UniProtKB/TrEMBL annotation:
Keyword RNA-binding: no
Pfam families in the record: HATPase_c (PF02518)
Membrane-traversing stretches: 7-29, 35-54
Key words, A-Z: Kinase, Membrane, Phosphoprotein, Transferase, Transmembrane, Transmembrane helix
CDD domains, per the entry: HATPase
Domain Histidine kinase: 230-447
Signal peptide limits: none
EC main group: transferase
Catalytic activity: ATP + protein L-histidine = ADP + protein N-phospho-L-histidine
Protein name: histidine kinase
Thylakoid listed as a keyword: no
MF annotations from Gene Ontology: phosphorelay sensor kinase activity
PANTHER family: HYBRID SIGNAL TRANSDUCTION HISTIDINE KINASE C, TWO-COMPONENT HISTIDINE KINASE
Length: 447
């Protein structure tokens, strides 16, 4: 091994130094002045040479440790010049640098890989220092879910949205918890969980949030498709016995017409059969009317429409009957030239449904009033609001009003608001409701 050669030469130099010292002592004792000078010079040379021999290794190691201290693993030590033992040392240092650079490169690749994965997921993730509030890492989904720009310290959220800050950052959610948070124009449901972890002496908090409104909407859309499939099946099952009974009655009548003397008609049986067909047909007709509106909403006929024209059509249609009930109604557009890419007939159906609901809600108000307002938000969303000062919606049923067939009215079918939501989902929009019992409601169509 190379260090054995180093030790050999080091001991050899030490032996020479000892020999030089003994020679110097002998010349001093013998009082030979000329030899004293030569022995002294030889000793000094050996001492300096040995010092330089040892120093070279320590200087090389000091350079290497300095590079390690400042994480400078790009430095390259010359392996092709200098003493053999130093070249061997430099070869070892270069090998260590290569290994560390490979490890760092692998770690960096894994970090970038993990970072890209976390950036692509639609789940918001943030980690921050519990004491200072400095953000260690956060992905784009976190800011998008909370409708916040990128920030380096969580105090930014505290200054802008104190209530949201308390809900997200100050409250602990050890188990995944579904909560509602209020943003600028809406209230959304999120699934949130967090954990605290320690890195050396610093404590960090990791928060994970997911907007479950979008997931619920997707599931609801799939449920609609399945529901329509089931209803079609049920209609066919209802038609089959009607058709069979009608065939039987027709055959009996044909026999009676063809052979009046041989075949005798039982009028009571015919009456009972016709009555059964009529009752079942009435039920089926009612059933078909209920679901006909649902089955039509499968595709859109999009066109560029001025909201002013849309409101004019609604106003001409609805205003006379509404004013006859002593209810004030007004339409407003801010700015006046707003346009939308929509299926006009379907959105008209949504607005008519919402206005009629508002009329029902305003019946008992002292000064009933309905306002329909279109505006554009700072992030370029177009919002149409239908507002009333009616009775409002009880908090207990507010979350269920968009569920198909749920209704609080004695004469309602429970598909009106469900249909409105389905139409908005087809437009890649959403419908939001805010209501205070006894004060009124606001339904917002967000495009």
């Amino acid at each position: 091994m190379n260090y054995k050669s180093y030790i050999f030469w080091l001991f050899f130099r030490i032996l020479l130094i000892v020999g030089a010292i003994l020679g110097l002592l002998y010349t001093i004792y013998s009082d030979k002045n000329s030899l004293i000078i030569l022995s002294g010079i030889a000793l000094l040379y050996l001492l300096f040479s040995t010092y330089s021999f040892v120093k070279r290794r320590f200087v090389a190691m000091d350079d290497f440790f300095e590079a390690v201290k400042y994480r400078d693993f790009s430095r390259w030590f010359p392996e092709d010049r200098g003493p053999k033992d130093i070249r061997f040392l430099y070869t070892g240092f270069n090998e260590i640098n290569r290994t560390i650079k490979e490890i760092n490169s692998q770690n960096e690749a894994q970090y970038v890989y993990l970072q890209k994965i976390l950036e692509m997921v639609d789940i918001g993730i943030i980690a921050y220092n519990l004491e200072s509030g400095d953000v260690l890492w956060s992905n784009d989904s976190f800011g998008e879910t909370l409708d916040m720009p990128s920030f380096k310290n969580i105090r930014f959220v505290e200054n802008r949205k104190p209530e949201l800050f308390i809900t997200i950052f100050e409250t602990y959610h050890r188990e995944p918890n579904s909560i509602s948070i209020a943003l600028q124009n809406e209230s959304i449901k999120i699934l949130i969980s967090d954990t605290v972890f320690q890195v050396k002496e610093d404590a960090f908090k990791l928060i994970v949030i997911q907007n479950i409104d979008d997931t619920l909407n997707k599931n609801e859309s799939e449920s609609w498709k399945k529901l329509l499939s089931v209803m079609t099946h049920e209609i066919m099952n209802s038609i089959a016995p009607i058709s069979s009974l009608a065939d039987t009655l027709q055959n009996n009548l044909q026999l009676a017409i063809a052979h009046p003397n041989e075949t005798r008609l039982d009028l009571e049986d015919i009456n009972a059969g016709v009555k059964t067909i009529k009752n079942r047909s009435d039920g089926l007709l009612k059933f078909a009317k209920t679901y006909r509106s649902l089955s039509k909403v499968t595709h859109l006929n999009l066109q560029r429409v001025k909201i002013g024209d849309l409101f004019n059509n609604i106003q001409l249609l609805m205003e006379p009957s509404i004013k006859a009930k002593a209810i004030a109604i007004s339409f407003e557009i801010i700015p006046p030239k707003l346009e939308l890419d929509i299926d006009t007939h379907l959105i008209e159906q949504v607005l008519i449904n919402l206005i009629l609901n508002a009329v029902d809600a305003c019946k008992m108000a002292k000064h009933p009033e309905i306002k329909v307002v279109a505006s554009q938000t700072p992030n370029r969303d177009v919002v149409i609001k239908v507002m009333d000062n009616g009775s409002g919606i009880p908090k207990a049923i507010l979350e269920n009003i968009f569920v198909p067939f749920f209704t609080s009215k004695t004469t309602g079918s429970g598909i009106g608001l469900s249909l409105c939501k389905q139409i908005m989902l087809l437009h890649k929009g959403r419908i939001i409701v805010k209501s205070v019992e006894g004060e009124g409601s606001v339904f917002s169509l967000v495009f």
